[in-house]
From TrEMBL, chain A:
The keyword Endoplasmic reticulum applies. The keyword Endoplasmic reticulum applies. It is found in: Endoplasmic reticulum; Golgi apparatus, cis-Golgi network. Belongs to the TRAPP small subunits family. BET5 subfamily. This is Trafficking protein particle complex subunit.
Automatic annotation (TrEMBL), chain B:
Part of the multisubunit transport protein particle (TRAPP) complex. It is found in: Endoplasmic reticulum; Golgi apparatus, cis-Golgi network; Golgi apparatus. One of its GO terms (biological process) is endoplasmic reticulum to Golgi vesicle-mediated transport. It comes from Lasiosphaeria miniovina. The keyword Endoplasmic reticulum applies. This is Trafficking protein particle complex subunit. Keywords: Endoplasmic reticulum, ER-Golgi transport, Golgi apparatus, Transport. Gene3D superfamilies: 3.30.450.70. The keyword Transport applies. InterPro entries: Longin-like_dom_sf, TRAPPC. GO terms for cellular component: endoplasmic reticulum; Golgi apparatus; TRAPP complex. Transmembrane segments: none annotated.
From TrEMBL, chain C:
It is found in: Endoplasmic reticulum; Golgi apparatus, cis-Golgi network. It comes from Lasiosphaeria miniovina. This is Trafficking protein particle complex subunit. Plays a key role in the late stages of endoplasmic reticulum to Golgi traffic. InterPro entries: NO_sig/Golgi_transp_ligand-bd, TRAPP-I_su5, TRAPP_component. It comes from the Eukaryota. GO terms for cellular component: endoplasmic reticulum; TRAPPI protein complex; TRAPPII protein complex; TRAPPIII protein complex. Residues 1-27 are annotated as: Disordered. Its main location: endoplasmic reticulum.
Amino acid sequence: MVIYSFYIFDRHTECIYSKLWLPPSAAAAAAPATPATANIVTGDGAGSVTLAPRGGPHNTDRRSVKVKASDDAKLIFGTVFSLRNMVRKLGGDDDAFISYRTGQYKLHYYETASSLRFVMLTDTTTLSMRSVLHQIYINLWVEYVVKNPLAPVEHKGGDGVKNELFELGLDQFVRGLM
Amino acid sequence: MTVFALIIINKAGGLIYNKTFYEAGLNKISTNDYLVLAGTFHGVHAITSRLNPVKNPANRASASAGGMLTRPDPPSGLEVLESENFRLQCFTTLTGVKFLLFTDTTQANVDQTIRRVYDMYSDYVMKNPFYQLEMPIRCDMYDRKLLSYIREINNR
Amino acid sequence: MSHVPTGKPTGKEPAGLRYPTNGKTIYHRPLNRSKTAELSQSSFAYLFSEMVTYAQRRVTGIQELEKRLNNQGHPIGLKLLDLLLIREPARSQTRPLNIISLLQFIKMSLWQHLFGRQADRLEKSSNPDTPDEYMIIDNEPLVNAYISVPREMSQLNCAAYVAGIVEGVCDGAAFPARVTAHSVGGNEDGEMWPGKTVFLLKFQPEVLEREALIASKV
């Protein structure tokens, strides 16, 4: 089982957290300077573009990866949003969109009662990851973000999500699955 | 095992065929909604093929058998969608026509079913002198063959 | 020192048609010599589809379209009559001389050659007013295998092409007739054979006159 990436969207359709676990070859091809685990917290697209390059030889690479990641996040949100609405329309209001698969990857979707959306991209042979996403919600999100007194109620721009415990826990949990 | 419905979308995203085989399977929606759905799906399908997280490394092509340079397959868009109440299989022909088959979640061998549906399309639609390309499909013969084939599956 | 060509090869044979020693020319066998001598139905379907589309250009009505399809088939019928007769064994190599044997020839030899099976039925009109009408019935004509006629053209039957072939055979055998194709799938056993087609042969009066004359002489 290979997990490529993981995204969280809040109820304002904003991507508040994203993390990529790219296989070494693809990561090397995409961004030679970045470590194998590229960790990007994206705000809205404009925010990440205005990050001024601080000099250094690989800044442009890094930035293009960042821009691409934020574009991807928007596309992913648009896709799951459309598909979720389509599923609701056809399958009834109690129906829920679970996953889709293409020839190259598989996207898993889990929506909480508070309209928080968890999305995970894996390879095509992976079985349903719904319970995994549910566990991430219960064991990591609720424990380390919701119960964290320092985290704000709204995570605008990823506020309060990017804390050490959550990130470490997520990374360990996902690497444990792979 | 039940096949709920079939939708065919032409290469421009227009709905050209839509047939329900099992009334209780999906919500009834108006023809207009079906048209919107076809257009939406067409767009989403294009995006899903772009979202591919695995980039084909350049050296993979040269590593194929016999040292022959082959072009990697273009990324495919959405092929299977699962929800709690149904399963949607999408088959894209080389000419860009999409066949969407809605079945219940336990349906097996949908690949073969959708292939057969495509076979019948190429027989009874494409060989019909009165069918105009890209236009809605109104072919009695196709309706008839399709219905009897799906009925056979649904009664199995 | 004879000028008459003998069976032996002389080195300078007269120009013209040469017969193989067994007397069989290329007309005696199909061009396609594979085991089953089959043709692709798909190729034919695409070709026929284009023929119908071609015939549909600049026509004003269904009558005219059927007439055009009929005209496309007519020369084939004329040629097939010759070809099928030459392939018969020598003793039965005769042109049909009465209506019944002509119809039998069409039902069996012609249909077998064209579609790989015989026509389903032959009928004579039961209406005493039209003794000149005969019917050949095909439950599912091969040419219509993939064709769905749109509702606004429900009168059309693309087997008019086959009707043209039949008409060509009749004309070639000196039984001038008018042949038309009619869909009867909606009738009594329409459920079983939705594409059922009747080829209606209406012979010219002189044919019936001659027929009566022959019958009276025998």
